[in-house]
Amino acid sequence: MIGGDITDPEPGKDWAAFQYEIYLNGMTGAVPRLPTDLTRLEELAEARLGPGPVGYVAGSAGNGSTGRANRAALDRHRIVPRMLRDVRRRNLSVELLGTRLPAPLALAPIGVLSIMHPDAECAAARAAAAQGVPFILSSASSTPMERVAEAMGDGERWFQLYWGKDREVTRSFLDRARTCGFTALVVTLDTPLLAWRPRDLDQAYLPFLHGVGTANYFTDPAFQAGLAKPVHEDRDAAVLHFVRMFGDPGKTWEDLAFLREHWDGPIVLKGVLHPDDARRAEAAGMDGVVVSNHGGRQVGGSIGAADALPGVAAAVGDRLAVLFDSGVRTGDDVFKALALGARAVLLGRPYAYGLGLDGQPGVEHVIRALLAEFELTMALSGHTDAAGLTPDALG
Predict the structure, then answer these.
(1) What integer pLDDT is reported at residue 83 of this predicted model?
(2) Is 320 helix (H, G, I), strand (E, B) or coil?
(3) Cα torsion through 148, 153, 158, 159, rounded to 10
């Protein structure tokens, strides 16, 4: 085959074969419905979808400097390919939170996905399940967690918690998530308040105020117990109740004991950028951290996530699962994140664009394209084991 023998991977999914599937389909005149350069998806989404929804997904805090810093931090690191290494057999699988995954990838939690596509979280969850990667469901989803769990069958699923003021609602969310098969809890720490987001502010666009992204709350018995009337009788009152309890800027490290008491599976803290915070997570009995700045959506002027990754990995990476998000757009981004100390990456905006442009097939396309590019990048750089990448692979 053109390009050499790159079709003999370790047993498991042959992600790299996606490129030959595309070329073979081209023999009949078919081309991919979406670009294989995933960095083009945002521009297409901007052209095809409304400014409110696209701005909500694509926008950042302040003037967008943190989003730019995320890309600059990844771009500063360069891969140093090595030659004449046997790369016929590759292994992309990783052990993460007690589970063997076929690739070092999960779909990041993104709320209110119905603004991108009517099939919303169910379409994204089915896509993740079909490709064997975990789907992380946002607390702020447009679809109740029970429906999402049903949609993805036996697929690996984790639940993301926006940790609000009402302990009974939190306890109820954890009980419901456990009952419908979510195996890990991802707690977002960096959103006790909404940031200053000009793209949303300029459109006066906040979906929650229209009851979008509130499905888990509006279907929750503990949330409903705080209402004078059922949701369907006074939706405005339900929205106001949600707004009042959603964030909690008073939370401290000591409050993690409540979550540990009420969740018996792995707990991962999302939004960690400082090694000392990673150490505090370990001391609190957590199982992992996500090095993340919320894709630039929370603190303008923040450190790029990839700049923070090596320090966090050095502090706790031999004891906790270190995951990474914020700025991942390409297969070489995945390579760099793993080389810098992450065990896996969470992919966010690109799959949301894929969903908005082509529903479930669009999300599957994004997953397959990213992992095909990652596997080929790894092999062509002289490496065969995703879990074995180290900083020596970078210049």
Answers:
(1) 98
(2) coil
(3) 30
DSSP state of 381: T
Q: Rounded CA gap, 21 and 364, in Å? A: 14
d(CA 180, CA 182): 6
Residue 2's pLDDT is 41
Q: For 33-65, b where at least 16 C-beta lie within 10 A, e where not — what string?
A: ebbbebeebbebbeeebeebbbbbbbbbbbebb
The whole-number pLDDT of residue 13 equals 85
Give whole-number Cα distances, 167 to 259, 334, 380, in Å.
10, 36, 50
Read off the tokens for 270.
């999302």
DSSP 49: S
Paired strand residues for 79: 394
pLDDT of residue 12: 59
How far apart are alpha carbons 37 and 354 in whole angstroms?
A: 12
Hey, which residues are catalytic here?
Answer: 294
Q: What integer pLDDT is reported at residue 7 of this predicted model?
A: 43
Q: In whole angstroms, what is the distance from residue 372 CA to residue 131 CA?
A: 12
**Phi and psi (nearest 5°) for 105?**
-145, 140
Residue written as token pair 């400082």: 274
Residue 22: its pLDDT value, please? 98
Pick from 183, 30, 92, 109: nearest CA to 348: 109
Collect all residues with Cβ–Cβ distance below 8 Å to 60 and sequence separation of at least 6.
Answer: 66, 67, 197, 199, 295, 296, 297, 300
pLDDT for the residue 3: 42
Contact 327, 305 (CB under 8 A): yes
- Strand intervals (E) in 65-138: 94-96, 99-101, 105-107, 135-137
* Element of type H or E holding 159: strand 157-162
Over residues 81-128, the pLDDT tens digits come to 999 999 999 999 999 999 999 999 999 999 999 999 999 999 999 999
Encoded tokens for 335: 């390579």
Q: In the prediction, which pLDDT does 119 show?
A: 98
Could you say which residues of the chain have pLDDT below 70? 1-12
